[in-house]
Fold this sequence. Notes:
Layout: H1 2-24, H2 34-43, E1 58-62, H3 70-82, E2 86-90, H4 93-102, E3 107-109, H5 117-123, E4 129-132, H6 140-156, E5 160-162, H7 165-172, E6 185-187, H8 191-200, E7 216-220, E8 225-228, E9 236-238, H9 250-268, H10 276-303, H11 309-313, H12 316-324
Parallel strand pairs: 1-2, 1-4, 2-3, 4-5, 5-6, 6-7
Antiparallel strand pairs: 7-8, 8-9
Helix pairs in contact: 1-2, 2-10, 3-9, 7-8, 9-10, 10-12
Amino acid sequence: MRRYFSIFVxxxxxxxxxxxxxxxxxxxxxxxxxNNFRLLSKSILPGKGNKVKGDAGKIGVIGGSVEYTxxxxxxxxxxxxxGADLAYVVTTESAANVIxxxxxxxxxxxxxxxxxxxxxxxxxxxMDVIVIGPGLGREPETLHxxxxxxxxxKNLGKxxxxxxxxxxxxxxxxxxxxxxxxxxxxxxxxxREANKLMTAVSRNDSNWYSYWGDCVAVLVKGExxxxxxxxxxxxWIATGGGSERRAGGQxxxxxxxxxxxxxxxxxxxICKNESQIQLAQSVxxxxxxxxxxxxxxxxxxxxxxxxxxxxxxxxxxxxxxxxFSLVKDKNATLG
Length: 335
C-alpha cells in the first residue's frame, strides 16, 4: 500500500510540475522572471528512465596547448560532473599526455594540428555540443585550424560554446559565426573579452550582440552575469552566489557546465514555439551560470582567498543538489 501511495505522490508532483512549466511557457510576450528560469532549468534535467551511455550527452572540448593544459581539463571534467556521460578533449600532442594524467575519465585525442584535420573532422559528428577555446592559445596556425573546425561545425549544425581564445579567434574574424544556423552558438566572454568583441563588430550600442544573427547568444561573465540574445524576452541578469575570488579556470568550469546543459535544453524542447532554440540557449546558460556561481561560493566559504578552480570542481555536486533539487538553498538564488 505504501508503494502505491509513493507512486501516487510522485505522479501528482510530476503533473503539478508539468502544469507549472506549461504556465511558464505563456510569458513569450513579456519579460521572463527569475522564478521562471529556475523552474525551466530544473525541467531540462534528463529523467531516470531507461538510458544508455551517451544519452545524457557527449561533450567535446577543443583546446589546450603546451602552456595551458588545465583549461580543457576543467571544462571537460565539469561537463561530466554536471551530468554528461562522455567528454572528449581534442588537444595538441604536447598537451594530450599531460591532460590524460589529470583524469582517466576523459577521452583525449592529440589531434589539434592541421596535419590531423581529417581526423578532427571525423570526430565532430559524435559530439552533441562542442566547446571551443579553453587553453587554445593564439598561434596563427591554431587559429586557422579553429576557423576550419567552426566551418565544419556549421555544416554539421553542431551547437557550439565558444570561450577564452576561441573568442579571440572570433574577434579577429567576426564573420566566422555570423548567421550561424540553429541550434546555434553561445559565446561566454568576460567583460574584457566582451569589449573586444563589441569593438570588433563596431557596435557600441546596447544590442551589439545582434551582429551575429538570431541563433548566436552571449553570456557575459562578471560580478553579475548578463545573458544577451536577439529575443529580448529571454535576456537576464544573474546575481547571488559567487565570491571576490577570480582564480584562473573559473570560466572553463562554466563552459563545460554549459556544454552539458545546452545539450539537455535542446533535447527537452521546452515551450515548443518558433523561438524555442533561443529559449533553450537562455535556460542552459542560466543553469550553467547558477551552478558555477554557487560552486564558487561554496568553495570560497571553505578556502577563502586560497580557493582555486580545482576547489570549485569539488563543490559541483553539492551545488548541483542545492540548485536543482527540491531543497532550497538560501545562497543559490540568482536575480
